[in-house]
Amino acid sequence: MRPDHWHLTEDVDGFLARAGDFLRSQPGPHVMQLTWAERVRTRGADAFGTTAPVFGMLEHAGEVRATFYRLSPRGFGLSPLTPEQADSLAARLAALGHSPLSVSADHSTATAFAEAWQRHTGATPKLRDTRLRLYRLGTLTPPEPLPAGRGRVLGEQDLEQVMFWCGEFAKAVGETVSMDAGSWASTRFADKRYTLWETPDGTPVSVAGMNPMIGGQIQVDIVYTPAHLRGHGYAGAVTAEVSRAALAAGARDVILFADLSNPTSNALYQRLGYRTLTDWAVYDFSYAAPEAG
Predict the structure, then answer these.
(1) What phi-psi label fits residue 216: left (phi over 0), alpha (psi between -120 and 50 degrees) or beta?
(2) Closest CA to 116 of 74, 71, 68
(3) Which residues does 172 contact at the CB level (< 8 Å), separation at least 6?
(4) Is the pLDDT of residue 1 over 50?
(5) What is the chain's alpha carbon radius of gyration, rounded to the nearest angstrom?
(6) Helices H, strands E: what count in the chain?
(7) pLDDT average, residue stretch 266-270
(8) Most buried pick, 15, 98, 158, 208, via CB within 10 A?
(9) What phi and psi, each to the nearest 5 degrees, are found at residue 131?
(10) With bands split at pLDDT 50, 70 and 90, how would you rate the model's confidence at 145?
(11) Spatial separation of the C-alpha atoms in residues 25 and 21, rounded to whole Å
């Protein structure tokens, strides 16, 4: 293959067979590639819209050097790219007639692709206000003292409780998601294991979830405490509990995303032992309407 040639496929098993070692070699920066490929593999392509997911890889001298995915109606998700790789991908996808609504990647990659996409298509990119930082756990340092109470892992019998907390989290972060017993399995929340922090009288006060282990890595996602219960150490306690569970499950790496506009949560994760891996960005694209005539 030419160095600038991107191979596209709808076959997620073939994609993982070819690109899996590359993705697992740096599971942190590739967390979204690994997570969404695994979701498509386990749930099937039909679970994510009427348009089949597309995966791509850039190969050079028989080795995978970069990857991307697209889930409709979501945008592109990219592995770390050089500006030259971003430009070659933008050129290829533009030639194939793609018109994504967004791109998500580490900040430098997302910016390079957004600029290349504008050059090749005329689309206008806009950086989302939400700025994320990806953290990786170093040495876990649980808070001392812990607030009174305990962590409780939620099981299948707790589905109503899980859906309530995920719904509250989704509203807090501005996600629009239908959440009931019928639609639950199709949401991004369904494949996580959740832990509640409960006060001594059994009142739930904070929740944290973790994704399945992929490539030796577990992502902590979500962490949520209702606004009126914050400031009591509940989020730190439940995050430490889930982080400990991830390590006990055999994870070599434990990661999480944090909103940079929330200095409290970022400081909390750093106190627990999480260290910056990279900053993350999402650009939305708008396209000029075609001229009439």
Answers:
(1) left
(2) 68
(3) 224
(4) no
(5) 20
(6) 7, 13
(7) 97
(8) 208
(9) -110, 125
(10) very high
(11) 6
